[in-house]
Amino acid sequence: MNGEALPAVVPLSRSITQQAIQRYAEAAGDFNPIHVNEEFARRTPFGGTIAHGMLVLAYVSETMAAAFGHDWLAGGRLKVRFRAPARPGDTLTVRAEPRRDRQADGRRVLEYAIECSNQNGETLISGTAEVAVGGPR
Questions:
Q1: Which of 71, 126, 122, 63 is nearest to 101 (CA)?
Q2: Spatial separation of the C-alpha atoms in residues 116 and 97, rounded to whole Å
Q3: Cα separations in angstroms, 128 against 60, 98, 113, 115
Q4: Which residue, 56, 47, 45, is CA-closest to 83?
Q5: Rounded to whole angstroms, how far apart are CA atoms 53 and 56?
Q6: What are phi and psi of 44, to 5 degrees?
């Protein structure tokens, strides 16, 4: 919009472990057996435990916070779809590709296409992220 290129966002990789899922369950108070009970989870269509969707989404937010700091934390917005579960043993990679920018309320609003995929290239989360930079807060 203003001729400036949108800032690049460095991809982030994280490994999912059952221990990380357990820690998230404790922090969130979400002990759904699909996340924390391997015996139960094996009998479901998932065939084993899966990570909480919000745990995986936190990695998306971490990626944007690393790129935009306070601007992201003060009002970054995500609009995503959960497409597949993350499982213990998965290595996730979050990427944010510049899409467009616009002006809103005296600030530059940057839009990125977001994707979180596993080591097999399967998309787990896709959507958009917006962050307002510069101008009044």
A1: 71
A2: 12
A3: 10, 10, 5, 8
A4: 56
A5: 5
A6: -95, 170
Measured from the Cβ of residue 85, the count of other Cβ atoms closer than 10 Å reads: 20
Within a domain: 80: yes
Report the CATH number at residue 52.
Answer: 3.10.129.10
Length of the chain equals 137
Q: Report which residue type is found at 53.
A: G
Render pLDDT for 64-117 as a digit per residue (tens, 0 to 9). 999 999 999 998 999 999 999 999 999 999 999 999 999 988 889 999 999 999
Question: Could you tell me the residue range of the domain that residue 128 belongs to?
Answer: 12-133
pTM (2 decimals)? 0.90
Is residue 5 domain-resident? no
Amino acid at 63: T
